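Suppose a colleague, Dr. K., hands you the sequence of a protein chain of 123 amino acids and asks what its three-dimensional shape might be. Before reaching for any lab equipment, you can write down a predicted structure in token form. Begin with the sequence itself:
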Amino acid sequence: MSQKIPKILTILIALVWLMNGLFCKVLGLTPRHEAIVARILGSDYAHPLTILIGLSEVIMAVWVLSKFKPKLNTLAQIILVVTMNILETILVPDLLLWGHWNLLWAVMFCFIVWKNYKLTTTS
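The predicted structure, expressed as tokens, is then:
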């Protein structure tokens, strides 16, 4: 069972990136994401930028599943998630699903990403 936990966590982490990237941003199923981009980066290019961000998140999901350069992947995920959530918490807390609490969820996600890296590199 302990060997299955890192595999399950890896899939769940990749699913977070895939769901947020593909469904919420690329397919536009959650308009709030584009509204966040518009408010932070400007409305002129919010739609194409939202799609680019979503495609980047889909690429992150593939990278997570590939297990290529896991330390760099882990650091990239943590830096991106923390940076994005701090900016959003400061600039657009009213558009976040859980307002200021989003940052707590982001930190917990980062902990899971880090813990999964530790589990996969020590097993």
